[in-house]
Amino acid sequence: MSDQSINAAFPAPQGESMRALLAADRVGTLRQIAALSREYEGIVEANALVAVDDEHDPEGSSTAFERAHVAALLSQAREHLNDLDRALERLERGDYGRCEQCGEPIPTERLEVRPAAKTCVRCASESLRRRPFTG
């Protein structure tokens, strides 16, 4: 690995530290995806063996909720995996640690907590404020 593959914003040891943090998060996320996939498949298989009438079966609605909940968690985990992969690509390109909106450096403390972060706290906060309330 050449020195050019590590972000200029990070000294080589810190860049390697961030790479290790991203890789560890990626491994954990892959494990989470595998576990959630097994759980989802188990729910689907269990329901396939039972004639479920969601409208009249008191367990039907909770089973549907459980299936939807696990599917949502699985979707979030897959999205996080994609975010981690994009962060690793940014690290390779040399623009990891820079806010994608304003271009300012993202503080190391933020990256240590959220290694896949692509925005600084200020831009992330502004983005949240602009979102319409859907509750």
UniProtKB/TrEMBL annotation:
Q: Where is the Zinc finger DksA/TraR C4-type domain?
A: 94-126
In its keyword annotation, does this UniProt entry include S-adenosyl-L-methionine? no
Q: Which residues cross the membrane?
A: none
The record, for Gene3D superfamilies, names: DksA, coiled-coil domain
InterPro entries per the UniProt record, alphabetical = DnaK_N, Znf_C4-type_bac, Znf_DskA_TraR, Znf_DskA_TraR_CS
The Gene Ontology terms for molecular function here are: zinc ion binding
Q: Which UniProt keywords apply?
A: Metal-binding, Zinc, Zinc-finger
Q: Where are the zinc fingers (dksA C4-type)?
A: 99-123
Q: Which PANTHER family match?
A: RNA POLYMERASE-BINDING TRANSCRIPTION FACTOR DKSA-RELATED
Protein name (record): TraR/DksA family transcriptional regulator
